[in-house]
């Protein structure tokens, strides 16, 4: 039975708090800065560069959209149906646009664009607790307690992000997510609540005529303050800060300065119109789905269109220990149109090649159906989905046995997955960043990219 | 050589140094050893703001600052520290801090259980200076109804319907009161410390009978719960033939006193003087509160991987704390009166941070301190304006500016979200122009522009403006549109409230 320390959850956060790590040793930061500046750190280790594992720059994806299915989705009822077997439950298999590949009947829209989609059916891991599984699938590393690893989003922001972009390079729709770890806080996610004013999302009532604008809190001037007044205030503030910094230079003060500069830029960028979904055709909005998830998917497309490097969308409710089949079906009424339309829309706009889409949760769920008609945590064999970003579509990698209990062919570990993702981005998965304790930590934990997915 | 340095050098020779002298001796020893430059003493305004924030969690008022600056007594700082310890804000701030440590940022933050716990901490523990060992003893062994016996609420929220709450209780108690993390030994022998599963379940066994039940099963409206110990219940692990039941056994294998109920035994073993990590943990925690960093970091994990920066200091100060009867007011007084605590935060050139405590750190405010600072600076009274719904506002602050693991210290990640909140959010911006707030009162009380600027600086930054600041702001406020007299003063308020100097403790 898989290791499942359910009761370890939440009682310890990996030994070091963010604060400890951020305050780390200045030496660590300098080491990191040095590695970044010179980029010779990689050259010091001759086995780092393996061209055949890394997508060449020309083909590399420019952005990543992660659809995070929090709770651990039952992938036997999504990507790897077992119709006719006891472990398949009532879920039926349906044909997709690719001959010979079937998905579960919960995903009809995505099935229609299967030629752009690849599914890995042979994911294996050992982390069966929500907190540890979440950490593993966000950072590619098992939590160790000695260091907080940077997440895929932060690495992407660092490697792909355009520093001149006035929008944050790592945006999280629907709450906070794993961030920069020991990397500088500028690579932390910026959280936006994409809750819509219409229907499903929640959030306050819309301002007149602006129900399609997704609100970022506090991005407009306060009442009674106009641009001139704002500028005057900022000028004085900068003088105060310069004075204080003379004798109080510290990480905190530097972070304050950076945060205010970025906030100022965000407030004034014309790119904020990305958040106005009213500019889109109503039929397209409808195809994505008018709930929070659908709107998030559409917003994600608009954000990557404007150069944002990494967007994470969150759809929860997958921890189906009870009533698995109804809950999955209900969740898929959001997931399927949102994700399916996103893939189609990106393809039609000729953006799919440059946008990598990753859809996964922290683990899968048991083939055995429990007494509550549910499935429990199961990291031993599960599936996830990749699309776009130069990843070959229309494929299935690996396979489970006929009941979904074990991986039968071509197991893929989470580090392997991360190596694949970074390779698709044109980034060497063996590249190392230096932790505050002076340890070089590679982007992928000794993973090997799945070559069959990269051309 | 300054008087202060001379004094420190003299102190360095004294092997009997105790209390604040011990602190100064041990800290300054490392400066000479490592040739570390150190700051000079703080000025009075600097000291007053810092001590107020650390001891009572609020900013000093302008009148208080002016009076303190004028006070000619050489021992005025010691007198101020004593006075702060008697203010009602003291008991409130430390009750709130310990509530966060004990039960986390539970939502809703003011439910009946938490209210009772907070009230007990405030009125019975901190207002009466209950010794720390008695406080922990109560938290571990109390029985009773959650709304009547505040102390039960620490363990109550960890109980489980299936009786398996012992795991969480043992883990949390160990981490909070001994800085010893055992919970990874639940499923297998601890991966990076010395505890085995037997050790872990030996600790769990003390709590294996601790449960909660409704006080009145007949009345659905009566939500009260009672913490009690059942007559049966054991701690065990493993499946089938490998299942093992473990008798109560403390980590250092000292036998539990006979004739005591399990939890009473645990409490006795936890708080005994020869459980060294008990005193060290809290002394280190208080140190971290006052210096921004513990002698050991992280403060809740004393495993072998992390070494104390000043091991002799921690050991000797902890022993003295025990000898003083676990008196936390004594501990605060001792730390706050030390020359080390009262160093300036003005960094000498080439001084390195952290390890040497050679200058006072510029460190983030806790969400509670930030909240109270904004309230104080803006003159907002509880229940009015932005503070009308204090619970939810404070919750927002905790979400935006806090991190539960370091609840008794602050974390300023410097995110864009935080910056936007302060620049444009309803607090402070809705409050700055509001009628009858502090700014309004200043304008009414002081007609001259120079006095008004002084007073605003005192209200927000707790000091008088420098010559440069006066030269910048006095002409600015005078040059405003006479019909909108308040506006330039609002601008000044905004500038100071958004500054690092306001947002950090230093």
Structure overview:
The complex is a heterodimer of chains A (455) and B (506). With 455 residues, chain A is α/β, with parallel strands linked by helices. Chain A has eleven helices and 17 strands. In chain A, the strands form five sheets. In chain A, strands 1, 4, 5, 6, 7, 8, 11, 12 and 15 form a nine-stranded mixed sheet that branches. In chain A, strands 2-3 form a two-stranded antiparallel sheet. In chain A, a hairpin with a 6-residue loop joins strand 2 and strand 3. Chain A is globular, with a radius of gyration of 22 Å. Chain B is built from 24 helices and seven strands. Chain B has helices spanning 3-11, 19-34, 44-56, 62-70, 76-86, 88-103, 112-126, 132-141, 153-156, 166-178, 197-204, 262-271, 276-291, 311-323, 328-337, 367-378, 390-401, 416-424, 426-429, 438-445, 449-460, 467-478, 486-497, 500-503, and strands at residues 144-145, 210-214, 225-229, 235-237, 244-246, 363-364, 504-505. In chain B, the strands form three sheets. Chain B has a three-stranded antiparallel sheet. Chain B has a two-stranded antiparallel sheet with strand order 4-5. A two-stranded antiparallel sheet of chain B has the order 6-7. The longest helix of chain B has 16 residues, at 19-34. Classes of the chains: A alpha/beta (455), B mainly alpha (506).
Overall shape of chain A: it is: globular
Output the strand order for the largest sheet of chain B. Answer: 1-3-2
CATH homologous superfamily label of chain A: Alkaline Phosphatase, subunit A
Number of helices of chain A: 11
Instruction: Identify the CATH class of chain A.
Output: Alpha Beta
Instruction: Give the percentage of residues in beta strands of chain A.
Output: 5-15%
Major beta-sheet overview of chain A: 9 strands, mixed
Distance between the termini of chain B: 25 Å
- SSE string of chain A, helices as H and strands as E: HHEEEHEHHEEHHHHEHEEEEEEEEHEE
Count of helix runs of chain B: 24
End-to-end distance of chain A: 37 Å
Radius of gyration of chain B: 25 Å
Query: Class by helix and strand content of chain A?
Result: alpha/beta
Mean of residue pLDDT values of chain B: 87
User: Can you tell me the number of structural domains of chain A?
Assistant: 1
